[in-house]
Task: structure prediction
Amino acid sequence: MKITWLGHACFLLEGRKRIIVDPFLSGNPMAKAKPGEIDVDLILVTHGHGDHLGDAVEISQRCDAPIVAVYELAVYLSKKGCKVVGMNVGGTLDYDGVKISMVNAVHSADLVGDEILSGGKAVGYVVEDDVSVYHAGDTDVFMDMALIGEIYKPKVALLPIGGFYTMSPKTALKAIELLKPEIVIPMHYNTFPPIKQNPEEFKVEAEKLGVKVVVLNPGESLEI
Ligand code: NI
Ligand code: MN
Result:
């Protein structure tokens, strides 16, 4: 699998399928790709905040790719004319042999525009393609990350470390203890001033726990 960080919480996972998660590209000062350049089979959205839903509607329509989202957000996106797969936490989508499981996240999820609409709840995903990857979405650390680790055994964990809106480097260390992945890629930091962090300091501390931390710059990939 080739895992490319496109900035913030946006990752491109290229295994047997091409999957993009949280395609916030337009308006992301760190983004290294434009929505018009993205060619994918499937889009996963962790919740309806603008820095995650991002360009999902445009990419979905241009690529004819369904958006996987929690049920309420999927209903909202279907009204925008997108193909959707509305599921819920605990569920697994078998997408041509690639398994996409929706897991819990501890975070708010309403859509904030001129009015506030219910977005269901915030979630994370485990993608079991040729490699198992856990994308935590926006979340604080929670004890049930131990269950995610036990059940899905993700080799790679994509974890927010920005703090302020999500886990910080300190609490992400606790998440690593619970999940027990082999590789961690930090995300959701340095996009905006409130989430400024030093990923190299996080790497030093996290690698004391026996995991490998791969710090990517936006646009860079890890092949495993
Ligand atoms: Ni959020
Ligand atoms: Mn966010």
The CA atoms of residues 141 and 185 lie 16 Å apart. The pocket of nickel (II) ion (ligand 1) is lined by residues 47, 49, 52, 107, 138, 165 (CB under 6 Å). Helices lie at 50-53, 56-63, 71-79, 145-152, 169-179, 199-207.
